[in-house]
Write a structure and sequence with these properties.
This protein is mainly α and 284 residues long. The protein is 71% helix and 0% strand. It has helices at 12-18, 28-41, 48-58, 65-73, 75-85, 87-90, 94-113, 115-121, 125-145, 157-169, 177-187, 192-217, 227-255, 258-276.
Length: 284
């Protein structure tokens, strides 16, 4: 069962491009496309996980342990781009890491508590669509809600902890981790730029922990036939995310969230309309 259509049903050229062996479970082209989507969307307020789930469906891929683990573990490449891009700022005082740890705690607690439930939600395209729309509505108006950032831009432990709770909301597929934590920072009177940069820094321990946990939980899904695809996916995600972060900070500072809100609403509504007309949106 696939989302929209299965490309392998088209002429042989498409079938060959997307054909895989039983051992691989994923073609190189599929891995490339998903990694590009991850790199583009991980740090944009549009939900990377939601977009990768939708991409998986559009490509007509059969979900299995390897594909689910691949979608999570290519985040390693994306978070490495943050470390490289903010090299000097990321490696600083211990106090900075303590604050990141405090901000990370809520996601760590609820992530372990709700792990199985989150995995089930990852299979629901309809949940992704609804959250895309609701999150889009928030982004259309959020710039008007937080117009006056504080002159004091220091991130205290209290602020870090509050931002960390906003990150928990992003465990629902379709809710952007980036959007949730940036908005969380803006509620603490941070500028959009500073809130976005702290969101990127917080992504490192959060996504590393999620990826490492998924890797340990599903290590049997990786073998000599597919480990090279995973490495390739991480390299692609790193390169794309590196340039996406640089572009996003500039755009967000000058133009705000509105365009991302409209984009989310359009994508979400299209999926909901297709669902209402009986199009099979199940990913299996």
């Amino acid at each position: 069962m696939t989302l929209f259509y299965n490309l392998s049903a088209y002429p042989d050229i498409f079938h060959n491009l997307f054909s895989v062996s039983a051992a691989e479970s994923m073609s190189w082209l599929e891995a490339f496309i998903i990694a590009v989507v991850e790199g583009l969307t991980e740090f944009l307020p549009v939900s990377s996980t939601g977009h990768m789930i939708l991409t998986e469906g559009i490509l007509g891929m059969k979900s299995n342990d390897f594909i689910q683990a691949f979608i999570i573990n290519i985040q390693f490449g994306a978070i490495l781009s943050v470390v490289v891009l903010y090299w000097k700022r990321f490696f600083q005082t211990l106090k900075f890491y303590y604050k990141l740890f405090v901000a990370f705690l809520p996601a760590a607690f609820f992530g372990l508590l709700l792990s199985d439930y989150i995995d089930r939600l990852l299979e629901s395209v309809y949940v992704v669509a609804v959250m895309l729309v609701l999150g889009g509505i928030v982004l259309v108006f959020v710039d008007k809600w937080f117009k006056n950032p504080s002159e004091n831009q220091e991130i205290t432990y209290k602020k870090a902890f509050i931002i960390g709770f906003y990150q928990v909301i992003a465990m629902i597929p379709g809710v952007s981790r980036s959007a949730a934590t940036i908005i969380g920072g803006m509620t603490q009177k941070l500028t959009k730029k500073n809130a976005a940069e702290f969101s990127f820094f917080l992504a490192v321990p959060t996504m590393f922990a999620a990826s490492a946990y998924k890797l340990l939980k599903n290590y049997t899904a990786f073998n000599s036939d597919n480990i090279d695809i995973l490495i390739f996916g991480n390299i692609v995600a790193f390169i794309v995310a590196f340039f996406a972060i640089k572009s996003f900070i500039s755009y967000l500072t000058n133009h705000g969230f509105k365009i991302f809100g409209y984009y989310r609403i359009i994508v979400g509504l299209v999926i909901i309309i297709l669902y209402a007309f009986g199009v099979d949106l199940t990913i299996s």
